[in-house]
């Protein structure tokens, strides 16, 4: 019998945060082992746990999964958060890929000597948010009338954007209304409360740990 899901990553958001979000929405309990020393990372390498010598790594169902998008797809498929058919799934994947492109721009900000905040804001408003504003002009979810991993990722992304640009959703009322609906889902509501497993914005300690 498979044990509890275990996440191996740094004590911070990064690429693991979307996995935490999705497991939370699927109401899956998980433990975390934080990498704080290079020796821990090297042990994972020597144990053969990291296929491409990278984290995140997630232990689930007797497997050690790597590569963020592969992990998210597995969780989404397992917990019915990846659409009802092939056409739904490809739409979900397209939305998710776009969301990740935008989130990765925000994720790397703490590691940049000269962060290009205005460039991110401009791309968010011109390239990404209009897509979701249109998609949510009638439906309450992005694809197929039901909750999917793309919805969870869009919520995470909009919250990240608002941390940097508090008024950015003012021109996107459908996205803002979607955000409001999503935060009323009990599991999400709990995740947004203090003391949950959601991580704060990256700080100097997080950046220093990763660099070392």
> Low-confidence spans: pLDDT under 50, at least 5 residues?
none
Q: Using DSSP, what is the number of strands?
A: 4
Name of the top-level CATH class of the largest domain: Mainly Alpha
Which structural class is indicated by helix and strand composition?
A: alpha+beta
- Looking at the structure, the CATH topology of the largest domain is Glutathione S-transferase Yfyf (Class Pi), Chain A, domain 2
**What is the N-to-C order of secondary-structure elements (H for helix, E for strand)?**
EHEHEEHHHHHHH
Total individual domains: 2
The proportion of residues in beta strands is 5-15%
* Radius of gyration, in angstroms, nearest whole number: 17 Å
Q: Tell me the helix content.
A: 40-55%
Protein name: glutathione transferase
Domain GST C-terminal: 85-203
Enzyme class: transferase
EC number: 2.5.1.18
Could you name the key traits of this structure?
single chain; 212 residues; alpha+beta; Glutaredoxin; Glutathione S-transferase Yfyf (Class Pi), Chain A, domain 2; 2 domains; 4-stranded mixed β-sheet; 9 helices; 52% helix; 8% strand
What's this, in brief?
The chain is α+β, with helices and mostly antiparallel strands.
List the helices and strands and how they pair.
Elements: E1 5-9, H1 17-25, E2 30-34, H2 38-46, E3 57-60, E4 63-66, H3 68-78, H4 86-107, H5 117-135, H6 149-164, H7 173-182, H8 186-191, H9 204-211
Parallel strand pairs: 1-2
Antiparallel strand pairs: 1-3, 3-4
Helix pairs in contact: 1-3, 1-6, 4-5, 4-6, 6-7
Architecture overview:
- The chain is an alpha+beta fold and 212 residues long.
- It has two domains: 5-79 and 191-211, Glutaredoxin, CATH 3.40.30.10; 86-185, Glutathione S-transferase Yfyf (Class Pi), Chain A, domain 2 (Up-down Bundle), CATH 1.20.1050.
- Helices cover 52% and strands 8% of the residues.
- It contains nine helices and four strands; from the N terminus they run E-H-E-H-E-E-H-H-H-H-H-H-H.
- A hairpin with a 2-residue loop joins strand 3 (57-60) and strand 4.
- The mean pLDDT is 94.
- Its EC number is 2.5.1.18.
- It comes from Etheostoma spectabile.
- It is an enzyme of class 2 (transferase).
């Amino acid at each position: 019998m498979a044990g509890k899901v275990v996440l191996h990553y740094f004590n911070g958001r990064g690429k693991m945060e979307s996995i935490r979000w999705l497991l939370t929405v699927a109401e899956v309990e998980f433990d975390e082992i934080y990498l704080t020393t290079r020796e821990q990372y090297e042990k994972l390498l020597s144990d053969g746990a990291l296929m491409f010598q990278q984290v995140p790594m997630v232990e689930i169902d007797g497997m050690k999964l790597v590569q963020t998008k592969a992990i998210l797809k597995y969780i989404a498929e397992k917990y019915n958060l990846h659409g009802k058919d092939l056409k739904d799934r490809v739409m979900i994947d397209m939305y998710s890929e776009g969301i990740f492109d935008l989130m990765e721009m925000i994720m790397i900000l703490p590691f940049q000597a000269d962060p290009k905040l205005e460039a991110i804001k401009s791309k968010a408003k011109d390239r990404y948010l209009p897509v979701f504003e249109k998609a949510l002009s009638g439906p309450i979810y992005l694809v197929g009338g039901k909750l999917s991993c793309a919805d969870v990722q869009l919520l995470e992304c909009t919250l990240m954007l608002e941390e940097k640009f508090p008024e950015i959703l003012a021109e996107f009322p459908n996205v803002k209304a979607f955000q409001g609906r999503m935060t009323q889902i009990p599991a999400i509501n709990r995740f947004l409360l203090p003391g949950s497993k959601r991580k704060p914005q990256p700080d100097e300690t997080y950046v220093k740990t990763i660099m070392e």
